[in-house]
Fold each of these.
Amino acid sequence: MNTVIIDGLSFTLPLFIMAIGGIYSERSGITNLALEGLQGFGAFVGALVAVVLAGHFSTNSQIPYYMAMLFAVLGGMAYASIHALLCIKFKANQVISGVVINILAMALTSFLTKQVNKTVFGAASDKFVLGVSVRWTIPILSDIPVLGAVFTNIYPFEIMIVVIAIVAWYLLYQTKYGLYLRACGDNPHAVDAAGIDVAKIRFIAVLMSGALSGIAGISFAYSISANFSSSIYVGYGYLAIAALIFGNWKIFPTLGACLLFGFARSGGYRIVQILQMPSSYSDLVMILPYALTLLLLIFFSKHNQAPRALGEIYDKGKR
Amino acid sequence: MKTKSNGLKRFFVNCFGNEKYQSITIPLFAILISLIVGAVIITLLGKNALSAYQNLLQGSGLLPKPSYAGYKSMLTDFTSFLNAWTPMLFASLAVAVALRAGLFNIGVSGQMLTAGFFANVLVGYSEMPSVIAKPLVLIVGIIAGACVGGLIGYLKYRFNINEVVSSIMINYIAQYVFSFFINTYFVDPVSRQSVSVSTGSRLTLMDTLVGDLKMDIPLAVVLAIITAFFIKFLIDKTTLGYELKAAGASPTAAEYAGIHVGKNMVLTMVISGGLAGLAGVTYYLGYFGSIQPKVLVSTGFDAIAVSLLGNSNPIGILFSSFLITIISKGSTYMSSAAGIQAEIASVITGILLLFSACGAYMKQKIKLLEYDITAEKSVLQKQEKGEEQ
């Protein structure tokens, strides 16, 4: 039971922060299918920095870890600016742009990973091996039965994500910027009439989604495989999108959806382990989150209310 | 100064020609830019970009290589290029049909895998004579692909589920479920892939001795080209095609005109899925003879680039799929001949996608420039008139 909670949370939280990124972008009116590519590219930049720095610090040092986090955020933002440019400046179809960004991210990062390994480290490898992250156990709280698992063996990124999620919630619902952002998604003309630059608000929102996806990407890289390779692209970005659709573009219901995905996944693995089934059965467990997503979407998509101007190219002349 | 920039503008606009030619010139411009960007990357790596591009053509059998192994020549390279081109053409047509109806079928890879798996299991492992087996493979492929495509369309029509999300979920489900079955029942312990299909059911005649050459003859390539023209006919000349395009251009307007948009949506996805199924069988039972578990082929995603580049026009796609296949097929030879990572091919394709996505913007920009030029012209003419008086 404990491992289910521990593994479930370490999967849920990155997914959640990525979904919040998606919420920012979509509430501002920009469809963001690019989350997958954003998290991958962010993770690539973070992992690259970690690998380069690792030689300069002792093996137990956690500085590369935090630097990786920081640079994953920057990398995600930089890469997200392409999506923002395509959607806002070049008026491309937002769905197509998102998918294009994902395909390019996959191609670029796997090419660059090989190339950097070859030229900088002189090794033929298609992955960056990351150090092992420390894991914390909070002394007294972890002794609580069942719930104590929440405070056991937590990755530093989990705490970071919780803090950032709270800040993101505050920003979206309690500040003027958040109000403008949400208005951009529903009625950009009203925002424009109030003298506020729609393009700028949306641009910042897409950059935010890049930053948050970057955190998610590097967290997945550290927690799931302890290295960066093209195996980072297994559709978690799309899972995050499904979570936010299921959560009706609101932050708290989205957390619920992410928890469901996380525990379905870790619970499934645990069942395979307990029943001592051969490893090929874990393939069947892997489909749980995806199948669950489809099922949930079947039941909830109809009643959902997407932001009204979502996916529409903002055209000042059109009323 | 002003007239100079005007001349530049006019040159730029003239390059693209009028609206009729822009559907050709804008993709050409995108290709040119991405080839230049690719060349810059290759040059930065310290390699000769021109010879690298030459290698791409050599690897595809379009230029002679410096030396050939026994039984091989430029012709055998070209037939194996055609072998790779066939599934790409089918897959791109699948994407294009959906795009025309305003749907984005990103699940082509999953539909290909489904079709390939069922054709493998139902026909590929049986001992049927090839006259029966080969058509049967095609039929099974079409049905399997159409079922998956239809499901995606139905989910969108009935439950309002975004087709991109549902098809990606189905991609992953297909990938893991079939990998489970292959690993449990059909695995070849040596190659770690599914057991190879019988030669009778294979759509490509591999290593066939023709004269003194051993070549791979892709039988389905003819079918693929015919299909392209058939789809062109279907879209341009039939009621179905008209309704499909109308639903894609504006669903509400189509609904007012009495077109059943939901039914069309499902039907479009059935056709698109069927084409993807053909791509699947020509890939898994033609180009390859087995299925690698846990891997979705990139063909389904590259097909999006091909389709965008070809303006979702079947004839345009004949050309654009040819080009993209040159890049992806030739990259293997390029990486061995020039020592450049083969992944550069997908980077170039990705950049190409990026620029193709901006096609609508380019069109608009050219129009604006044209207005600018005519406006400036009339101002100049007025000034001249004023001076004369």
Note: Chain B touches chain A through 43 residues (CB under 8 Å).
Amino acid sequence: MLLTVSARARLAIALLSLLWWLPVRAETTLTVVSSWDARQNFTAHFLNYVDAVNAAGKGIVQIDFRGGPEVIPQRQLLYALRRGVIDMAFGGMTYYRGLLPEGDAMFAATITPAVARQNGALAALQPYWAERINAHLIGWMQSGIGPHIYLTEPPRFAANGLPDLSGLKIRTSPTNVELIKALGGRAVQIAVKEVYTAFQRGTVDGLAWPTIGFPDLGIDEFVHYRVDPDVLQLAITLQINLDTWNALSPAARNILTEQAILYEARSRRDLFAITARELEALEQAGFTSVTLPAAAQPRWREFAHELVWQRFAARAPESAARLKPLFYPEGSQ
Amino acid sequence: MKRLVQYYDGLIAGLAVLAGSIIASVCLLIVYDVVARNLGMQPPDSTVALTEYAMLYFTMAAAPWLVRERGHIAVEVLQQRCSPATRRWLQRLALVVCLLTSAAVTVLAAVLAFEASRRGELEIRSLAVPRAALFAPLVVGFGLMTTEFARLAWRGEAVTQPDLPQSAL
């Protein structure tokens, strides 16, 4: 007898555990759902990241894009992520302020994602992501461009050089309500699909809208002016369920992170290019962009950013105090 | 005990009245919103959000009363085709399923409400509401439906047919 019974048993166990080990080494597929559907600007561009990971991660990690709000309702996305219904969630932090107020740190930041990685700002967000939504923040995927104020009539400016919206009704999402009110305007919340009718009937005099996607609204027959420059910036992130992240192999984690770093720079470049292209097309159609005097621009930016930091501090004072010097260095000098 | 039952019956009926008044208010709100918008006046900021919350609240306020009135949807075609004996069994089965489902949803909603309130989560739309306020009506509505179904079971009454004699079960 070559092997004793117990040795045979041990060998069997060793072989079995090898089988157990094999699938762990095999390719992991992660599901991702977005805040918006696949044709929407931000989601459509994010699919570049999905493709990049799938190319770099052959045999290690793959991403399966499942769709947008048709899969999980927009407002439920991060709750689904927290419970592990999906592995990853991509989306605009503006929808999740009630759950994760720390998203405002990126919205009111003046730094780029690359700087946020260097100075520890991104790392400082991880505890909040872990505690509040049981997730690891993979990247600040889309950034840079921010909301503009679009108007039917030429913009007026107050004595301090800031836009004067007094007497005007401005359509906005909940994200920019504070800004519109602080400029003297009346913030009106109307569903996107009703924006055209609102302008047609004169219910509103303008809207706050990100730099991208304005032509898609089809309201250029009513809206002819835009106040430049934009202020604040996109806070669109990708996060992964923390338990899923912890179970991933180091190789898989590296691919997800490295591709996110590349993508953060690429999306920023592309979004700026799309913005410039859209503005050019609008201007050819008779649209006017009115730029604030150079002297008033820093005040304009500070005004808008401080408002967001104030609302963030009112909701979560400790995290705002900790994150502000990292994301908004100018405001803390 | 008799006093308690009176209060309880009053609560069920009162919630039904509340549901009715919410439905009426929402109708008026929508009419006002549409009229104001078309006259170029300022429509209220939160009509859509209020309507959506109202749908949850009036459903939950009316549901326990509907159990009592046998107002919930039932597939009568199926019942009519069954023999009286099968029908009795179907009725018992439906009652057990309704009772267990209501109890399970009550517990689940209570857990979620507690969690949302402990974490201080908000639903920020055109108005900011504590997320627990989305689950609280489920706790009340399904909780009272549980007691209503239990009451039917205790009395040996059927879930769907108010005119079914009590001896049917």
Note: Residues 250-284 of chain A form the longest helix (35 residues).
